[in-house]
Structure formats: C-alpha cells, structure tokens
Amino acid sequence: MMTFSRLSNYFDRLDQTASRNEITRILADLFQKTSDHEIDLVCYLSLGRLVPLYEPLEFQLAEKMVVRVIASAFHEEVRTVQKTYKRIGDLGAVAEKFKVKNSKFKVQKLTVTEVYRRLRNIAEESGEGSQQRKVDGLARLLKDLDSLSGKYVVRIVLGRLRLGFSDATILDALSFMRLKSKELRPQIEKAYLVRTDIGAIAKLFKSQGLRGLRGITASLGVPIMPALCQRLKSADEMINKMGKVVVEPKYDGQRVQIHYRKLKTPRRWAGRQNSKLKGDEWQVRAFTRNLEEVSLMFPELSSIGKQIQARDVILDSEAVGFDSTTGKILPFQEIITRKRKHAVSAAAKKVPLRFFVFDILYHNGRSLLSVPLHEREKLLEQSIRGETVLVKAKRIVTDIPQVLRDYHRQELEAGLEGVVVKRLSDPYIPGRRGWSWVKFKEAEESAAGLSDTLDCVVMGYYKGRGKRTAFGLGGFLVGVRKGEQYVSISKIGTGLTDVQWREMKMRIKHQESREKPKAYAQVHKTLVPDVWIEPSLVTEIAADNITRSPVHSAGLALRFPRLVRFRDDKLPSQATTIREVKRISSLQ
Ligand code: AMP
Question: Which of 224, 225, 229 for a ligand 1 pocket mutation test, highest count of atoms within 8 Å of Cβ?
Fold first, then answer.
C-alpha cells in the first residue's frame, strides 16, 4: 500500500512539469509502484476527483468553508487565514503553510486508500448539518496529514488540482508502464472508449494486462464514448468511400445517451443510486457526449418505459426542443437553459424535448457494439413504440450520390442542419475514428467560406480600448487542440453582438488565471493576452477561410472569424483538433 504522502510527492513533481513526455514518464513510474488494489483510486485522485467523470459526486464545499476548515484545523483566526489566502491566492498552499507553522500536530502515516475513504465520506455527507460535518471531517484529515499532502487534499476538495493532464495521458502512461513506449495505447484506448471509467481500465490492465481488457463490452450504467462524425466534401466522395449508406437528418440539439432498464431485472446497475430517474417500474440514466450524467436535467425521460419494448437498452439520441403548438423544432439555444438546475422543471414545461433516437448499443443484456448498423436498426425498430418522447430518426438507405444530394437539400429546406451519413455494414465505433459516420453540410460551403465551423477554446482576453471596454474585454484569443495542449489560431476582436460580449465576460469571469495555464502550448509574444483563461469555455467559430500563419502556434489562422455560439455541451478536450483544421483547410 502506498502512503498518501508518497502520492503527494508525485503530485508535486507532476505539478512542476509542463512537458507531456515527462508527465507521462512520471505517471508510468507512479503506476508501476502502485498496487492493483489502489491504482483506480490513484487515477481518480490524480485527476482531482473521487469517481469516474460520469459520476456526479462533488465535494460541495465553497472556498469560504475551506477557509474555516484551515482555521479550525490549525487553531487560527478565520481572518488570518483569509488574509494569507488573499496574499498567495491558493488555499492549498495556505493549508501547507499553516501546517508547517503548527508542526506540533502529529502526522499520521495514512495510506492512499485511507485518505480516499475519508475524502469520500466527506463528499457523501448530505442532509441537515452536512456542511458542518464536512468541515469537521476535512479539518481532522488536514490535522493528520503532512503539509504537502494537505496542500493537495485542499486542491482536490476545491476542484483545483489541475495537474495538466486528462484521461488520455493516463492511457499513454499505462502503456509506458509496461513497455516504456506508447505502443499499447491504441489497444488500451479501445477498451476505454467502451468503458469510460479510467480507474477500472487501469485496474484491469495493471492486474491482467491486455488480456484483461479484451473482455470489455458495453455495460448498463456506464456511458460509452459516443461515435462522432468525420467530414467529407461531396456526396460522390462519400459513396465512393462508404458504399451503401444510411442517411439521416442532422438534428441540431444535444447528444444524449440513454440507459434504460426495467426494474426487477437481476442485472446489477453500475453507478450511484441517487443520480437516476426512478419510476416504480423502470430506471433511466442519461449522459452527454462529454460523459456527464444529466438524468435529472431531462425529466421527460422518466416516462419512456411506456415506449420501450425491451428489458433493458442503451440508446443514442439527439435531444431537441419541440414546440408542441406549431410542431416545429426549436433552436439549440433554447434547451441549453437547463444547465441551471433550478430552471429544469420550468423549462421542461415551456420547451418539452423530444429525443430523436438514431442508434441502439445494448439490448436485453447484450452489447450491440460489434453488430452491423442494419441489424442494430432492426432491433431499434422493434424496441420503441410510438412517438411521444422518443422518436425514431427518419432515414433512407442509398448508394446513389444524387439521391444523397437530394435528400440533403430537402433536409436543409426543412430547416435542419444537414445530414449524417453512416456506412450500413459497420459496427458502432466509439469516438472519432474511421469513416463510419460522416457529416454533410455541403450547402454552407458555397455560401459562407469554410465547409464547417471550428470549436475553439478561449485561451485569454485583451482589455482593449474604446467602446468595448464597457464589456470588460476588447478581444480574445482562441485555440484548437494539439494533443492535450491548445495552440492559438485566431485573435477575435469583432463579429460579436453586444449581448455576446457581455455573455463572454460573464462566462470567463471565474476562469481567470494569473499565469499561462499549463494546458497552453507556446503563444507568440505579440499575442500574449492581458488575462489568461483556464481552458473551460468552448466557442463555435465560423470563418471565411484558413491561411498559413507565422505567429499563431497552430501554424494556421482564421480569416474573418466570427462567434456563432457558445458550446456549453463541449469540453475543451473535445474542441477541434489541429488535424481536423488541416482537413477542413484542405477542403477549401
Ligand atoms: P458535430 O458535433 O458537428 O461533429 O456533429 C455530430 C453530432 O451531430 C453528434 O454528436 C450528434 O449530437 C448530432 N447528430 C444529430 N443528428 C444525428 C444523427 N442522425 N446521427 C448522429 N449524430 C447526429
């Protein structure tokens, strides 16, 4: 068993390096020294969490409360702690400092498992008096820990660990641990995309190697990484490359993966009990494309048992706002208001959602991931009755480019975003790999420059001059993904409405950073923003074209960029990659 103190030393080394290779090596070494029994916990903790991404367990302790924790643990005045915090700006470092100062408290040698268990108890406290119990529990823990461990525990509790890597680097590090190279990464990743629990994957791999990962299939309650679309330019190219295809409208809403089971099904349900929608007869969990649990955001789903003709299923769908009086589909922005939890029931009444279901990944205890699309469709057809909340997506099957083009035009005229084209004989391929699914937005291409928009991460902003200073910023720097870092591709100072400027400022207010965040790669000195922003906000940017750039670290720049909308449904790790930008650029 590893001591938490030793783990904190690793955290400290990771915190001090920005080099991706070095981080991978340190993690590989850490995993090597961790036992099979603790490696899952080490994975979650190093990502600043206690559970996989899709489990909604949070500490629910505000900064103010943690100030009180530190004061109580080390018998200091709240005011003194606050003052120190103002000066150094990191409560983790504050805890460390007071521990050093109060060395009279005896340090216990706690294992990773013990600290994890105590943290988990703190997070799971709920109900009356729970804030106080959380404060007391954390204060006791800080007393028992050495100063460096205290620093990292506080950062984890506040959701500020940010060691500069995500699940992807852990996959590399697992391969590195075995072979001192990234050779096994694709095979480990393949398992991870099906079971997106990084801790479970690490544990299986550490104890049984690749053999352990081979048995992984879809399981109810654990989100599968959704299949994503590639881009191809024309209908001809699609048919050439893909042969016989299914063509479906591209509904413009939010991706939702629905896990459903009838109660009294013996199969165990993964995940926490209190996060699901529960009826008397069935249970539902729903996940976004970022693998976030959103069941409670969609009360409509509580009635789907009436439509589903199976014991259990996993469905892939797009949630779309629907105006029941006009029968029209509503724009994406309307449903996003549900992010704010209290607004859910009001929103559900005002803009009820429909879930356009286009795939089925699991059926009556059986994973369908390796079953060809045409057979999955048959099962989907049998599994849903009626069109109240769940609606089967419309589709045609063709291998004639002209039929594809006509269908596409017809969908555009009907107000949809375009079409998604899927190879008829393919299995379900999680993630963005291969040419199984392709999106087609041909009409946009001739009208407005690029064939597609880019999802860019906001890297920082400029204070600016003139009228816009009233909004608190005059321009901002955006970037695209390169590995786990972001490289700049555009400085945007025009093309936003007043409302968008204000919204931008509001959204980035809490993400400001004194230094360049570790996730950002080189930014040219002429582009360094006045204020850096932690990678958190994704914006959809349209542009007329893409040109070479000597200053932007992407090596490319956008001409006439404009903000289309904020993509609250995407994580920075799902922003457009440099490879995709090059591809879009080559389609010009
Ligand atoms: P994009 O986000 O532009 O890469 O497009 C892919 C997204 O389109 C998916 O993640 C879904 O949210 C959405 N989508 C809408 N309709 C469909 C459909 N019929 N099949 C697959 N994805 C769809």
Answer: 229
Catalytic residue, from 250, 276, 518, 570: name it: 250
Where does CATH 3.30.470.30 sit in the chain? 230-441
- pLDDT average, residue stretch 454-480: 85
- State in Å: Cα 32 to ligand 1 middle: 39
- Residues 13-72: tens digit of each pLDDT: 999 998 889 999 999 999 999 999 999 999 999 999 999 989 989 999 999 999 999 999
Cα separation, 546 vs 549, in Å, equals 9
* Atom number, ligand 1, closest to the C-alpha of residue 227: 10
Which among 58-72, 320-334, 509-523 has the top mean pLDDT? 58-72
CA distance 79 to 67: 9
pTM over 0.85: no
Name the fold adopted by 230-441: D-amino Acid Aminotransferase; Chain A, domain 1 (3.30.470)
- The 10s digit of each residue's pLDDT in 356-414 is 999 999 999 999 999 999 999 999 999 999 999 999 999 999 999 999 999 998 988 88
Q: How far is the CA of 437 from the centre of ligand 1 (A)?
A: 9
Distance in angstroms (rounded) separating the CA atoms of residues 184 and 192: 12
Identify the CATH number of the domain defined by range 48-157. 1.10.3260.10
| CA 420 to centroid of ligand 1, rounded, Å | 7
**Residue 190: enclosing H or E segment and its boundaries?**
helix 185-194
Q: Is CATH 2.60.40.1840 the right assignment for the domain spanning 454-586?
A: no
* Residues 520, 532: Cα–Cα separation, whole Å: 10
The C-alpha R_g of the chain, in whole angstroms, comes to 25
